[in-house]
Design brief:
- By secondary structure, the chain is of the alpha/beta class.
- Helix content is 45%, strand content 15%.
- It is built from 18 helices and 13 strands.
- The strands form 4 sheets. Strands 1-4-5-13 form a 4-stranded mixed beta sheet, with helices on both faces. It has a 4-stranded antiparallel beta sheet with strand order 6-9-11-7, with helices on both faces. A 3-stranded antiparallel beta sheet has the order 10-8-12.
- It starts with a helix and ends in a 5-residue tail after the last strand.
- The structure holds uracil (URA).
- Uracil (URA) binds next to α9.
Length: 447
């Protein structure tokens, strides 16, 4: 067995670790026998030297096994979805019931929001009565009965990731591809689903700034999944602009329900359909054999994904899911009854021309300033505040036209939010061409 300084020197020289090396280092760190300063040095060596594909796969499995591994083996057609983070990203609220309606089982752990990003649990908690605390038996039974259950992330899910992430944050080693890929995938592997669909965001507000970097990350995560016997596919999406029109918890639930009613914004609908298609291409719950599974074409998968939006079956799944977890389904039938902050302020266009950009990060920070997000873990949030974006990049506007609406409570954080939003909109005198939302698809054999 090597000493820890030998392992650090090994990586510093650009050599490859064995699984046993990684267990020694990572499990030692979780147990408290390997100190922060040695792991910090090792992280920096990884940052510069990188890792081979089998090595990242081993690292991820060691991290996944550092805590509880959720056993979903008694459930059929399990699927999980992950987004690398977005503003106004209510995709999970729409996609989960779509997948359940398509015959998948979604038994998912979701986090809460931090800083400018929202969390699915926070969004769902804007539905009166809905709660994320289920025993493991309830969680599995509900998944079996209605195909959809969701709990808050267990504290013991991939604890190595929590510790490593905190250390990366203070040692300038966050933006390392093998470390990001292993961090995301360790939690997905520990969460137990057989099929995993990833939404990898690309853009100024995302971890991956360019399409090529995003593709590299997506390929690394697909490969990690394959090594662990899971099927993983990824869609790369632009995230310079918030998805849909709403940012803020209750507002996003309303928009998600409208989308499940077939009257949602085009970008959100398009992304949810694209992710559902990837799930079907990875694993079709209706196919009985591996042979018929490969026969699913993109076109037929897309038609099925659109069908569950049009025929109301995905909406019925959301209603059943909300009710099963204590929520009042009246809010799914009448989403306009959800508590939305009563005070409104408007933001007007600064000039006549075309909207050239809308900084998603600034919109997220505006919601945070209004009280709709938390700066620190455990803080209470106001579910009713938020921002409605009325004009998106590419659209023509005239000076003084309302481009966004702020939903606030008695002016709390309004001035800061207003200023952030003012800066978030960019204008151009020329017409603006908007890049496509779906930039690339990565996965196994392409249908
Ligand atoms: N999300 C994660 O969970 N981990 C990272 O390292 C980056 C994004």
């Amino acid at each position: 067995m090597s000493t820890i300084p030998e392992l650090i020197a090994h990586k510093r020289s650009g050599l490859t670790h064995s699984r046993a090396d990684l267990e020694q280092l990572i499990l030692g760190y979780v147990a408290g026998t390997v100190p922060d300063y040695q792991v910090s040095a090792w992280l920096m060596a990884v940052y510069w030297r990188g890792m081979s594909a089998p090595e990242v796969a081993d690292l991820t499995q060691v991290m996944a096994r550092s805590g509880d591994m959720l056993n979903l083996s008694e459930l059929a057609h399990t699927v999980d979805k992950h987004s690398t983070g977005g503003v106004g990203d209510k995709t999970s609220l729409v996609l989960m019931p779509m997948l359940a309606a398509l015959g998948f089982t979604v038994a998912k752990m979701s986090g809460r929001g931090l800083a400018h990003t929202g969390g699915t649990v926070d969004k769902l908690e804007s539905i009166p009565g809905w709660q994320s605390e289920l025993s493991e038996a309830q969680f599995l039974a509900q998944a079996r009965d209605i195909g959809l259950s969701l709990v808050g992330q267990s504290k013991n899910l991939a604890p190595a990731d929590g510790l490593l992430y905190a250390l990366r944050d203070v040692t300038a080693t966050v933006d390392s591809l093998p470390l990001i890929a292993s961090s995301i995938m360790s939690k997905k592997l520990a969460s137990g689903a057989q099929t995993i669909v990833l939404d990898v965001k690309v853009g100024q507000g995302a971890f991956m700034k360019t399409l090529s970097a995003g593709c590299e990350l997506a390929r690394a995560m697909v490969s990690i999944g394959e090594h662990a016997g899971r099927t993983v596919r990824a869609v790369l999406t632009g995230m310079d602009t918030p998805l849909g029109h709403m940012a803020g918890n209750s507002l996003e639930v309303q928009e998600a329900v409208f989308t499940l009613q077939g009257r949602g914004p085009a970008d959100l609908t398009e992304l949810c359909v694209a992710l559902a298609v990837e799930a079907l291409l990875a694993h079709d719950p209706l196919a009985q054999t591996a042979v018929s599974q490969t026969a699913v074409s993109y076109a037929s998968a897309e038609a099925r994904a659109r069908q569950v939006l049009q025929d109301g079956s995905a909406l019925s799944k959301l209603r059943a899911f909300v009710q099963a977890q204590g929520g009042d389904p009246i809010y799914i039938d009448h989403p306009e009854r959800l508590d939305v902050a009563p005070d409104r302020a408007e933001l007007q266009a600064q000039q006549t021309g075309y909207l050239a950009g809308l900084d998603a990060l600034a919109v997220g920070q505006a919601v945070l300033a209004l009280g709709g997000g938390r700066e620190r873990k455990g803080e209470a949030i106001d579910h009713g505040v938020g921002v409605e974006v009325l004009k998106k990049p590419g659209e023509r506007v005239a000076t003084g036209e309302v481009v966004a609406r702020l939903y606030h409570r008695s002016g709390r954080g309004l001035e800061t939010a207003h200023n952030l939003l003012q800066e978030a909109f960019a204008y151009s005198e020329q017409t603006v061409s908007v890049p496509p939302l779906i930039l690339e698809r990565i996965g196994e054999e392409r249908a």
